[in-house]
Structure formats: structure tokens, C-alpha cells
Amino acid sequence: MRIGELAQRVGVTVETIRYYERARLIPEAVRTRGGFRLYTSGDVQRLRFILAAKRYGFSLAQIRVLVLAFEQPDDLARGEIASIIGQHREQSREALEALTAAVGLCERLLGVYDTQRRDLEQHLIDSLVARDD
Predict the structure, then answer these.
(1) CA–CA separation, 24 vs 81, rounded Å?
(2) For residue 38, which phi and psi values (nearest 5 degrees)?
(3) Contacts from 91-95 at CB under 8 Å and sequence distance 24+?
(4) pLDDT interval class at 21 (50, 70, 90)
(5) What b/e string do you get for 27-37 counting C-beta neighbours within 10 Å, with b at 16 or more?
(6) What is the pLDDT, as a whole number, of residue 74?
(7) What's the whole-model pTM score?
């Protein structure tokens, strides 16, 4: 399949695919005599993996190592995979703690805002009623 079809199939732009080739996340495509890039179902699967890993917060550098390690299923590659995934797990836990703290802060701030808003509304009502008397 050509680059446009691949892009449409996985939901990215043609430029994204070209960038991933330059970044060595996907192999350089075979080209036709006319210079068109040709991709395989394996490229579709690899791109889907890359996009899923990005969604889960893996960096492109981490994804590159994972992709290459998956292609070389030896003990060294398995060690690299475990290391990257373990590091990402810890980073994700830290991010989760920070986000949980941020949610708590937002809830407290909204509580203060709601209380102050009600107090302000009551003050305005009291002022308007006092003027009518």
C-alpha cells in the first residue's frame, strides 16, 4: 500500500509517517520505480503499536528501543524491554500522584469559590433589600 493509504488506515498524516521513518521508528519503505513508498501489513501493526505507546505516555526514544528490541527477541532485548517498561511504570505512578494532588487542590479551590460566591450573592441581596427599606 502507498503512504496515503497507510496514513488513512492508522489515522495519522503522511508527514507523521515520513517523520517516523526519519526517526527510525519504522523502517524506510521499499520504493517503486516511480519513487512511491510501499508499505506492508507489518508496517500497519508497527504504527499502531507506536501510536498506542505514545497514547500511554512512552517517549519516542523509548518506543524506538522497544520496537528494535521486539525485533531481536534475545535476553538482552528482553532486559531492555523490562527496563523501559519498569521505568515508565514508575514515571506513571509519579504522574498519577501529581494528578491526584492536582484534582484535590481543584476540589478545594472550587469549594472556597462556591462558599465565597454564595457569601457575595447573599451580601448583594442584603444590600439591595436594605436600599429598598
Answers:
(1) 17
(2) -120, 135
(3) 91/57, 92/57, 95/57
(4) very high
(5) eebeeeeeeeb
(6) 79
(7) 0.72
